[in-house]
Amino acid sequence: MWRPEFLYTIYERNLAKQISRSVVPRHVGIILDGNRRWAKQLGISPASGHRKGANHVAEVLGWCDDVGIEIVTLWMLSTDNLKRAHGELEELIDIIVRLVEALAGSRRWRLRVMGDLSLLPRVAAARISHAVESTESLKGLTVNIAVGYGGRQEITQAVREYLHEKAEQGCTLMQVADNVTIDSITDHMYTKGQPDPDLIIRTSGEQRMSGFMIWQAVHTEFYFAETYWPDFRRTDFLRALRSYSQRERRRGK
């Protein structure tokens, strides 16, 4: 009798053959959703679910590396998450800090922060910043760590920074209003200098964006996986890439 693992291996190989490297997305965003529900169905603590999800991140980044993706944005902690009960939030932040330090310590990927670290406890923010800075010289896959991130907050902060910049240049409010462009705001987003995401994957079966990269995702393709993040398999990842490769991207044209 064939084992399920063997059948999955065959299925993965067939999926991989259906994906052309010429249409692999350059930038993939991932909403790591479902850790708490995964834990609940097993009758264990939310923190156990978050730890299981964190332990899965490096493996998925390895899959991204294998197919030639250049940038991955991981949404780990939203501004809404910061409203959770203090005990769970404290554990979640600690898990994220340890994960970022582990990713940096692997020396495999260049990390960037995408979010407002001032919303986190000072020690946690400092540890994340230090870990990210230690990867600045690394090449290859860039990993954006979205922590303390909200789409509306990002746009608000970008506009605020743009206004401050123009005020320091001595511009009047009328001059700023007359000359503001899409690029003016884009140049102050967290992803400045990066291409917009080609594909965003959300796990757990939820079919909504929850404010993730709402400025950047105007021409992005979306893929909603039914599985919870801790159970997100390579087959699920390859299905997302296959779906993306089969779409006609008109970019509004």
Give the tags:
253 residues; 13% strand; alpha/beta; six-stranded parallel sheet
Description:
The protein is of the alpha/beta class and about 250 residues long. It is built from 9 helices and 6 strands. It has a 6-stranded parallel beta sheet, with helices on both faces. α5 (about 120-135) links the parallel β3 and β4 (about 140-150). α1 (about 5-15) packs parallel to α9 (about 235-245), α2 packs across α3 and α3 runs parallel beside α4 (about 85-105). It is globular and about 65 Å long. The termini are far apart.
Number of helices: 9
Percent strand: 5-15%
The major beta sheet can be summarized as:
6 strands, parallel
Shape: globular
Question: What structural category characterises the helix and strand content?
Answer: alpha/beta
Written as H for each helix and E for each strand, in order along the chain, the element string is HEHHEHEHEHHHEEH
The helix content, as a percent range, equals 40-55%
Q: Uncertain spans, ≥5 residues at pLDDT below 50?
A: none
Give the oligomer, counting copies of the same chain as homo and different chains as hetero: single chain
The total strand number stands at: 6
Strand order within the widest sheet? 3-4-2-1-5-6
Give the N-terminus to C-terminus distance in angstroms: 51 Å
Average pLDDT level: 93
**Gyration radius, to the nearest Å?**
19 Å
Write the topology of this structure:
Blueprint: H1 4-17, E1 27-31, H2 35-42, H3 46-67, E2 71-78, H4 86-105, E3 110-114, H5 122-133, E4 142-149, H6 151-168, H7 173-179, H8 182-186, E5 199-202, E6 221-224, H9 234-245
Parallel strand pairs: 1-2, 1-5, 2-4, 3-4, 5-6
Helix pairs in contact: 1-9, 2-3, 3-4, 4-5
